[in-house]
Amino acid sequence: MRPELAARLGENVPRYTSYPTAPHFHPGVDADVYRSWLKALESGDEVSLYLHIPYCDRLCWFCACHTKQTRRYEPVASYLRSLHAEIATVAGLVGGKAHVRAVHFGGGSPTMLKPEDMIALGTVLRDSFDFLADAKISVEIEPNDMDEARLDTLAEIGMARASLGVQDFDPKVQKAINREQSFLQTKAVVDGIRSRGVGSVNLDLLYGLPHQTRESVCSTVAQALTLEPDRMALFGYAHVPWFKKHQTMIDEAWLPGPAERFAQWQIAARLIMGAGYEAIGIDHFAKPDDALAVSARAGTIRRNFQGYTEDRCETLIGLGPSSISRFRQGYSQNMPSTAEYGRMVEGGHLATVRGIAFSEDDRVRGWIIERLMCDFGFSAAELVERFGEAGQKLLFQASSIAIGDPARPLELQGDSYVVSAESRPFVRSIAAKFDKYFESGTARHSVAV
């Protein structure tokens, strides 16, 4: 690798699951603004729903999600009452105008819910919103939670896609991240999901974890491939102890350095693609006939807070504490504190406390960044056709990047600006060059690769 590219291994940049990124949200987008955006939905709009379950019965040290550990179920049951209240308020504002195309249960650990509570939640969603007949339901699964009753429940609510956290199968790595989960346990859950007719299984793997080596990563990938998942995600561990205090439980001396992290990513990606999977963006892989791979080949994949998706809905409504919603007008985010969130929504109020409204410049830059993250390039003609003069201004910046960076990460090929093949692992750093907030911001970020 050329030195100027190798230097980028340790750069700290956003993950760009949104633009503008969450550190730039502000209190100016409040509940009144959120209400107006909900009311502005047009008849026939298709929307996605995200439901956040902010509890786990065990806290994994690597996790950067908004969640908390509880050994008792009472806080979870109390939270569900709050969630039902928010659903009622939001659905009342949406009315019958919008149709639900997709639902994603995330966390935390959604599968921590008791079967009867998961069924009740699925029922209240369908009673409150207008679901399309082919709406897709996805659930993040913690294999340690699962039993036959929960597997039956997920099938009953119509789960079409299951996403299982694997991270790493090496016992030493698992102990260091407080996530013990055997291969056989994972296989039993995958088999149970498939035996109930669920058509799509995704496995999440991590590189850059404490005590990981290229050999251990290879072993984990090889085992995961025997389960024949439809999709795989290969994320780099984001060590952000200033943001998530429980990550201080991980000794930084155990973490691989930037060059080793990159080597782990390279060898894992090679193995996955060698098994016939197509690479999607920077960290997803899918079988050629999977909807995500089909969408990627068509140039229509999107990127949101769950990563890469074929979901093309312009509107994503987030429900639960810390959840982020996306509208045509901008982003809004709920109160992160579960207790305060509960007080707000059970009083009949909306829980939005911050967000950001899009300027025209945000829209242009956001489109460029999303296309770079999804397609490793963008069409100059399409940029100008979509955004006119505002798009033309950004072309000058693209030209400056293409000419001015000695590493030549961005190249003009015909009508399009394209990330060079050797620069693709560093596309987050290239995207950051189009981020007007990045240089002036004070937020700290994870490493680029």
Molecular structure report:
There is one protein chain. By secondary structure, this protein is an alpha/beta fold. The protein is built from 15 helices and 19 strands. The chain has helices at residues 3-6, 31-39, 74-94, 115-128, 148-156, 171-177, 183-195, 214-226, 258-274, 291-298, 338-346, 360-375, 380-387, 389-404, 427-432, and strands at residues 46-53, 55-56, 68-69, 99-107, 130-141, 159-167, 200-207, 231-236, 278-280, 284-286, 302-304, 307-309, 315-319, 324-326, 330-334, 352-357, 377-379, 410-413, 416-419. The chain has a nine-stranded mixed sheet, with helices on both faces. The radius of gyration is 21 Å and the shape is globular. The mean pLDDT is 93.
- Estimate the helix proportion, in percent: 25-40%
Judged by helices, strands and strand pairing, the structural class is alpha/beta
The strand order across the widest sheet is 9-10-8-7-6-5-4-1-13
Overall 3D form: globular
In short:
The protein has 449 residues and is α/β, with parallel strands linked by helices. The protein has helices spanning 3-6, 31-39, 74-94, 115-128, 148-156, 171-177, 183-195, 214-226, 258-274, 291-298, 338-346, 360-375, 380-387, 389-404, 427-432; strands at 46-53, 55-56, 68-69, 99-107, 130-141, 159-167, 200-207, 231-236, 278-280, 284-286, 302-304, 307-309, 315-319, 324-326, 330-334, 352-357, 377-379, 410-413, 416-419.
